[in-house]
Specification:
The complex is a heterodimer of chains A (251) and B (366).
Chain A (H helix, E strand, L loop, with lengths): L3 E6 L8 H10 L9 E7 L6 E7 L8 H5 L5 E3 L6 E3 L9 H5 L6 E2 L10 H4 L31 E2 L5 H4 L22 H5 L5 E5 L6 H8 L15 E4 L17
Parallel strand pairs in A: 1-9
Antiparallel strand pairs in A: 1-8, 2-3, 4-5, 6-7
Chain B lengths: L9 H26 L15 H24 L10 H20 L5 H11 L5 H24 L8 H23 L12 H24 L1 H10 L3 H21 L7 H6 L2 H18 L1 H4 L2 H25 L21 H24 L5
Helix pairs in contact in B: 1-14, 2-3, 2-6, 2-7, 2-13, 2-14, 3-5, 3-7, 3-14, 5-6, 6-7, 7-8, 7-9, 7-13, 9-11, 11-13
Classes of the chains: A alpha+beta (251), B mainly alpha (366).
Chain lengths: 251, 366
Amino acid sequence: MAKWGMVIDLDKCTGCQACTTACAMENNRLPGENWQDVLFYHEGKYPNVNMKWFPRPCMHCENPSCVSACPTKATYKDPDGGYVLIDWNKCIGCKACMVACPYGVRFYTDEKPLVQPDVRSVFPGKGGRTWDPPYRAPQDDPTRGVGIQPHGVVSKCTFCYHKTSTAPKGVADLDEDDPKTKEHTPACVRVCPPKARYFGDLDNPASKVNKLIADKRGVRLLDHTGNKPQVYYLSGGAGPAVPSSRETNKA
Amino acid sequence: MSAATLPRAGSAGFAIGVVGFLVTGAWVIWQLMTQGHAAYNTTSNGLMWGLPIVTYDFLLMSSCGAALTAALGIVFGVKDFEPLARRATWIALALLVGGVLALFLELGNPIRSLYAIPLNFQVKAPLFWKVLAVGVYALCLLLMAANWIAKRDAGKPGGVATIGAIAALAVVFTGALMFATLSMRPFWHSGEVPVMILVEALLGGMAFTLLAAQLAGGTDAQAAGHAARWVAPLAFLTLLFVAGRAIVGLASNLDGLQVWNKVVGSVWFWIEIAFLVVALWLTATAANRASGGMQTLAMILVIVALAIGKYEFVIAGQLVPLFKGSWVHGLIRYAPSATEWVLAAMSAFLAYAVYAFGASRFRLGG
């Protein structure tokens, strides 16, 4: 059984948001409901301003705090692949998982739109779904949080479960440049123009993701929380560059 | 004694509670049916739990505190609380009903929660154990209501009251765990939080009980005056927790604790402190304890202060955005929507209607 993980090279990422757009199209996300996002930060004041960006999918943690918070096992760790998924048939919409996620990757369906206008009113949902976009991807697996969610549940990145879970057995990496794995590569990885993203089996010593983590000293985000993400960042040996949300006090 | 000869003072209160509940309920249901949860100002940008959860938590914790107040008299034999135990038990039931209503109107799938939580055995989740504890707690309250409060000549329900008190403690601690275990939220992540929530729950439950007893008058008010000396140390402890947490939060440079600057900069924080200080003075001095008016005021001040504190605790813990980038500048801004306020009033009216029903139907006094 693979344990899928992602490596994101921050020295390559240009913040172009192609990954965000591809994810939204692949998974029929509402505007603003970005399962995968590139977050922008700025520090300092004009003229000494430093702008940073930071790509952030779900970390699919090894020891996820969201799973421990969910009272119904709707959020669960899939041993086959190491995904953290949501069973929409069990989700009660208590949002405890959202409160317990250190990375802000979860979204509740029924609330004011994050981005106006509210396209749900333009394309109202059918069959209990929250909306019915003009183009709808064919995948639909509510027990794994794949597809368009019903009302009253939480959704998040699935590592493109519908693509990656059907990868050939034993393969070490899912690479868009390899014809055998191209269609099984997550949308955000496949479209990344500078090839800043890599996706592979963390349990396979021969995988490229493991080599990158070892050779370039990959680090995990907020490791002190104990979540142990399966997404690693390469940053030339430094930690992932996300500024503190505290304002700097002047001495 | 037949129902016809029982005190009818609560009948008007019951009518007020029912009318208030129906009016506010009609508004909330209309809003939810036309807008869904978009009628609330909660957001996936970081403020997931809004005023409905504050209302739920405040009423549920106060309910547990009332049950523990009753247990002080029934189980532990504290004389001051023996004449207040029936009223405290019924108040616990009323607050529980109001709190659960607020929760159900906040959940995305409330009906599913009734079976999905107990049947999926997520033993790692504090909320799983909390729901089990609430189930046992509610059952104990119902048994005490049916076999003790409704039957005037029945003996003390020692066994059920003991189990109910243990369940109430379990509800408080499992509920507190949901906050205290979240290492990514320093405002909540602290070992003293479960103890603080227990003290606040006991203080809230006691304040509701003593307020109701004061308003009932007669020997009930006298009993409330005697028991008020227990409120003072609890109010003092609550003040210590609030002040201690605020000082640590202001002094620390940990990312996440800067929210204390906003909390302490709010006028509501100082109202909370002032109300607790005045209530402490009113309940610590013998002369004031002998005054029904002063004690009524003290309990109202305690209840309002605790409600403000609960709002601060639940909301402020979410105000620092976690990985939202430029989607959220600075702290998250949140103010409850009109529907959220009406929902809180709806829960309060329901709790009051249930209490008033008991007050009109049964002899709740000693």
